[in-house]
Amino acid sequence: MSAPLHDRVTIVTGAAGGIGEGVAQALLDDGARVALWDLSKERTEQVARRLDPSGERVLALEADVTDQDAVDAAVAATTAHFGRLDGLVNNAGVIAMAPSWEEDAAHWRRHLEVNVTGTFVCSKAVGDVFRSSGGGAIVNVASNCGKAGYRNMAAYNASKSAVIGLTRSLAMEWADVGINVNAVCPGGVDTPMLSQVADWLSPRIDVPAEELLAGMGAEQLGGRRIMPIEIGRVIAFLLSNAAVIIRGQSISVDAGATPY
Length: 260
What we know:
Blueprint: E1 9-13, H1 18-29, E2 33-38, H2 41-51, E3 58-62, H3 68-82, E4 87-90, H4 105-133, E5 136-141, H5 154-174, E6 179-186, H6 192-205, H7 209-214, H8 228-239, E7 250-253
Parallel strand pairs: 1-2, 1-4, 2-3, 4-5, 5-6, 6-7
């Protein structure tokens, strides 16, 4: 029995670690070939070597998801290297903690530019390929912050809510050309981004960052944090033929912390 994603080619943005690396590992486990995109070519190549030392099933590319020309070039390089394109995981994102009183326009725009505009730019560029090749699947990495919202994260919360809305719109508009679009909404995943949040909070509430991190696990999982590959396995399913009846959904993958 062949793997669910046997020989399919998927782009993963923000792939130089964290959730992106976990997603890439899950896709490779399910038989896919993967193009890893990130701002840092060096870090992306390091991840590629860890995941597939042979280099036969991975491609590392430097790409800024907010730059249309860079995205177009990376799509062309991916399709030229692998000869096809079947999936896209919009994982690239930024978070910078700040009370809403201290937000400024530049801080706000940066979140929207990377988290929302970058998701659309990549989706549109890859969608054009899918439209001419008969279809494909897109999974956007939103967040439970886009559903519930949290303090000191107004820009991030708003950007992830926008990703959820974008997911619904693209799923409706692109279904007739064979493109399936969904999103996942992770909670506390064991990544450098979560550590960044703990580091920011620590001096402000006078609690050691290590203690904060220890409390950011999922109660329903016995207090442990969710691992990136666990998010990746859900995404791998959404990219497969088995998920063809799931469309425009933003699925909470936070162990029940957000029950909707």
